[in-house]
Amino acid sequence: MTTAVLRRVEQGLVPFHPLRHLGPVADLMTQAFAGELGPWARQTLRRMRRIARWGALGFLLWGMDLDQESPGFVWVEDGRVVGNISFRRAAGAGGWMIGNVAVHPQWRGRSIGRALVEAALEDIAARGGAWVGLEVREDNPAARRLYEGLGFETVGASLEMARPEGRPWPPAPLPSLPLRRARAAESGDLYHLAREGLTRTHQEVLEIRPSLYRAGWEARLSAWLEGRREEWWVLRRDSGASLSGALRLTSYRSGRWHEVEVLVRPERMNDLGGPLVATALAFLARRPLWETVTALPGVRMHLEPLFTAAGFRPLRRLLQMRRMLGTSIPIQPRRPKDAEIIGGLDG
After folding, report:
1. Picking from 105-109, 205-209, 215-219, which range would have the lowest pLDDT averaged per residue?
2. Same domain, 167 and 133
């Protein structure tokens, strides 16, 4: 696949325009992040290409407004998009998230990545942003040096794992945990459990928010109407106690993939982590053999060996970073090796 050629002459740093740049950016991200794209990212790229192929009609059909401001920049060389950065408002007040930073392999080493990040920080500051968050691969030291040089600090880490489709689940007995379906009234407890063991700044960059932890029949119906099957199970020792653990299974019908999330109180990780993971896998064994992914932030990375034993493999080890705004952006001399793949796809 070659980098897409733009229809109009542009050069250098250019504000992102959906109609002109959406298709070329999808091609760029496919090349820049080859081998580390999860199912959600691949589905997003397919959708971007479908919209781009239809042009203005595609934006109308998918309910996107061409006149709506789309924060981001592209870098153009000889009429080709070779770099991209996107950013959006974060769930937390005053925050913004950088979703992805990508530079085409043939154009790395020219400080394009640094120029894109600096432009994004200046734009976000002009919009009144209080802080900026992002994720970067742990095994990308060039990107980490760049971000640290621009004032970002690491606030936490997470691990994304994936299990390929078509692989049978190993036979295992269902653990005898007193699990039951979560009720709508327990949505707040699920949200609280998801935040345990994580600092407040880490929660902000991970964008852990109540809307992600809705339980009950209305939430299940809403998920079904949106094309996914989503179920929560909880473990509560008695009616007055807080949740000890929980698990969520989500199956995306259109993309044909599953997502599993295991929540457990940090102090119960050793005794409940294994049975909760085993229960989640036993439930998954009853569903189609689609690709399955999980994310393990913070203390939940202790569950990695349990998922590895079930056939999961690390997809990306990520560091969550944050920069407070309100102070000058440290513009440093650009070094030739600053421009690597320095970000990741959103979601």
Report:
1. 105-109
2. no
